[in-house]
């Protein structure tokens, strides 16, 4: 039985046992907590090592090109995902939010120390205290400092070995996922009221809808609006990669397919319109696809929406004025593992950390949609990034207006449709005073 099937079986078994035995299986919380903490063992060391090696291994010319045009592309793609993240509260029915926790005893809300959050005055303290943005900034600075050193391979080679070792440890720990999911699902189903557990479908549904919107329109539509590559062609040529990523919940195994499809799309454009040298474009694809691993993809950014869902779920209001802080901290946090980023962001928003276990459970399904979105994101980075670097972008007002108009209609339909559906199927909340 494949690992994905084992995870699904473990999820169903855990929920069934939790519903049947109730509070008697509360002891499974220990196993769930152990699993969550084990997932985070190698994350920050791996993030620091991979970023230092990734940036340090670049040439200055490549880094300058990636920072200017490639950076602009990433900002646009992140903006698309963040726009959906901040629309997520509108897709959740306001009257169905919960208030399952009592916050009366908590300390007054503390101000965010931006300098401490982003400037790693003591990188080791940032590592010890899980300050992910500061760790990312330190690793990027260290990598940039290595670029021009003539003997940088003396450090990069051991770093490569270390990163490979951390990757293997992560793979070994991933084998424990069925057991961890079983423990979390069993404890959650046994200790939560049924209507509370059913409220999780709010995040599962909205994430799936927004992920499909990114995959099948917003991302490929952007390519079609800025290049001669058509929207339908983008979707059809990526079809096998999208299906494989969805079924396996694995982006890595479809990378060779995405590289080949990117080259095919660019070759078709050259055959139709002429232009840049094919060898140069193929080289750019070979650089852009692996380099994109050092940056958050659309699905990771979309996962930040769980923090807003958790606030709605627990009855904690997150004012829109703090969305900027959440976006800034969230983008840096998701450079690493999402399993490290979400607890950090929950703490930043002063939402109970216990809700992270719901995120892990929802990930059994959401990870499939996320892998699919990540595959399309990688294809768009390769195709659109190559066109940006080679100067093959075509700005036509009619195409841009059409893209923006259709996008606005689809996003509005997704938000209003999700809100109406969830309003009908979700149970009425049980307030803390009634428990």
- State the oligomer: single chain
Tell me the span between the first and last alpha carbons. 41 Å
Q: Which word captures the global form?
A: globular
Q: What structural category characterises the helix and strand content?
A: mainly alpha
> What is the radius of gyration?
22 Å
Q: Pick out the low-confidence regions.
A: 100-109, 431-435
* SSE order, one letter for each helix or strand: HHHHHHHHHHHHHHHHHHHHH
What is the number of E strands? 0
Amount of helix: over 70%
Largest sheet properties: none
- DSSP helical segment count: 21
Portion of residues in beta strands equals under 5%
Average residue pLDDT: 80
Q: What topology emerges from the helices and strands here?
A:
Layout: H1 3-21, H2 28-39, H3 43-56, H4 60-87, H5 114-118, H6 123-128, H7 132-146, H8 153-174, H9 177-191, H10 194-198, H11 201-226, H12 231-237, H13 239-248, H14 255-273, H15 278-291, H16 298-303, H17 305-314, H18 323-333, H19 338-348, H20 356-390, H21 397-425
Helix pairs in contact: 1-9, 2-9, 3-7, 3-8, 4-11, 4-20, 7-18, 9-20, 11-12, 11-20, 11-21, 13-20, 14-15, 14-20, 15-20, 18-19
């Amino acid at each position: 039985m494949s690992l994905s099937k084992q995870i699904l079986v473990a999820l169903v078994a855990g929920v069934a046992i939790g519903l049947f035995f109730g509070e008697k299986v509360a002891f499974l919380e220990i196993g769930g907590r152990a699993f969550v903490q084990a997932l985070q063992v190698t994350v920050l060391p791996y993030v620091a090592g991979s970023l230092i090696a990734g940036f340090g291994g670049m040439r200055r010319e490549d880094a300058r090109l990636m920072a200017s045009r490639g950076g602009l592309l990433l900002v646009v793609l992140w903006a698309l995902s963040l726009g959906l993240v901040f629309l997520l509260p509108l897709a959740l029915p306001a009257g169905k939010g919960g208030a399952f926790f009592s916050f009366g005893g908590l300390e007054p809300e503390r101000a965010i120390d931006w300098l401490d959050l982003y400037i790693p005055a003591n990188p080791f303290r940032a590592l010890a205290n899980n300050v992910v943005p500061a760790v990312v900034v330190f690793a990027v600075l260290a990598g940039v400092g290595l670029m021009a050193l003539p003997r940088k391979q003396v450090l990069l080679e051991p770093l490569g070995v270390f990163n490979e070792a951390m990757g293997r440890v992560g793979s070994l720990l991933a084998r424990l996922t069925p057991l961890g999911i079983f423990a979390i699902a069993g404890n959650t189903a046994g200790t939560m009221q049924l209507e509370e557990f059913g409220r999780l479908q709010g995040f599962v549904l909205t994430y799936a809808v927004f992920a499909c919107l990114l995959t099948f329109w917003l991302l490929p539509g952007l390519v079609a609006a800025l290049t001669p590559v058509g929207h339908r062609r983008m979707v059809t040529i990526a079809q096998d990669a999208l299906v494989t990523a969805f079924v396996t919940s694995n982006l890595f195994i479809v990378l060779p397919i995405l590289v080949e499809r990117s080259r095919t799309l660019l070759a078709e454009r050259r055959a139709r319109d002429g232009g840049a040298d094919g060898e140069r474009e193929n080289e750019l694809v070979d650089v852009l696809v692996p380099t994109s691993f050092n940056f958050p993809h659309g699905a990771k950014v979309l996962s930040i929406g769980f923090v807003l869902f958790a606030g709605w779920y627990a009855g904690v209001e997150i004012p829109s004025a703090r969305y900027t802080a959440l976006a800034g901290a969230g983008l840096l946090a998701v450079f690493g593992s999402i399993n490290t980023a979400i607890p950090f962001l929950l703490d930043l928003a002063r939402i109970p950390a216990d809700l992270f276990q719901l995120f892990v459970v929802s990930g059994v399904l959401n990870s499939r949609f996320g892998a699919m979105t990540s595959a399309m994101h990688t294809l768009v980075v390769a195709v659109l990034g190559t066109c940006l670097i080679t100067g093959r972008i075509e700005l036509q007002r009619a195409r841009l207006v059409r893209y923006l108009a259709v996008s606005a209609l689809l996003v509005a339909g997704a938000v209003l449709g999700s809100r109406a559906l969830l309003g009908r199927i979700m149970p009425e909340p049980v307030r803390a005073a009634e428990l």
